[in-house]
Amino acid sequence: MPFVTTKDKTEIFYKDWGNPSGKPVVFSHGWPLNSDNWENQMFFLGSHGYRVIAHDRRGHGRSSQPWDGNDMDTYADDLLTVIEHLDLKDAMLVGHSTGGGEVARFLGRHGSSRVSKAVLVGAVPPCMVLKESNPNGLPISVFDGFRTAMTTDRAQFFLDVPTGPFFGFNLPGAKSSQGLIQSWWQQGMLCGFKGAYDCIKAFSETDFTEDLKSIDIPVLLLHGEADQIVPIKAAALESIKLLKKGTLKIYPGGAHALPNTAIDEVNEDLLKFLQS
Q1: Nearest Cα to 100, choosing from 74, 67, 76, 129?
Q2: Is the pLDDT of residue 53 over 90?
Q3: Cα-trace Rg, the chain
């Protein structure tokens, strides 16, 4: 299996599918998942002639589980390591949830010399936590509850999240999928405990405002109207105000897990944005 080693000797697992000479599309996954969560989009775009790459974030999936470095700056640096290792140019970056924060921080920290477009799906920017400058954010007690649930019974917590709000299976009339629930649990339990715990702070408290303001390439925002994990009011509806070249598409009634629950629509939106 392919790995790349970072400056602090962390081994990052990645997949590199599709047409080796096609335009590259690089995917960053959400918490506490791994690159497997992008398989529908990777297969679709790979089948349309694109080169599709996705990595497991440090501490997640098949990558190393370092004690330190579980923060957005290091996540962005790891993404750069993958991109430079594969010498990718003119790439489109796609990030879901925490991965959307990773993409935003990458562009704010490393610029767009190797990137031509970006897509943020149900993404955490500009900032999730409630504070004076973010009145629509969620109280820190929500994320403290995540941490308590992890240290009390991580396995049960990682069943409760997909059974309920992540896929929107707790909404009236929703059709639940036991397969999606089990897949989420499996990916989550592969995540190192320390990496999963630290990542809660990274995705909830990192402020991406200046990153978004600095981005000079076209950015497509896809967000579910009924997202219960990253509510749209403090996320995409604020991010669109900060982006120089942003486009927002709201999925009516859409949940947080758009890449899993709106597969065909997300696939087509990515393809259209690539071709535009």
Answers
A1: 76
A2: yes
A3: 17
pTM: 0.97
Beta bridge partners of 17: 52
In angstroms, rounded to a whole number, what is the distance separating the alpha carbons of residues 243 and 219?
8
- pLDDT tens for residues 145-166? 999 999 999 999 999 999 999 9
CA 150 to chain centre: 20
Domains and CATH numbers, the chain: 3-275 (3.40.50.1820)
Residue 255 confidence class, pLDDT cut points 50, 70, 90: very high
User: How far apart are the C-alpha atoms of 149 and 28, rounded to whole Å?
Assistant: 25
Peptide bond into 32 cis (omega under 30): yes
Which residues is 248 bridged to in the sheet?
221
Residue 111, C-beta contacts closer than 8 angstroms, at least 6 positions apart: none
Q: Which residues contact 110 (CB under 8 A, 6 or more apart)?
A: 76, 77, 80
Q: Which residues are catalytic?
A: 97, 227, 256
Contacts of 87 (CB under 8 A, 6+ apart): none
- Strand, coil or helix: what is 1? coil
Beta strands (DSSP E) in 186-264 are 219-224, 246-251
DSSP, res 86: T
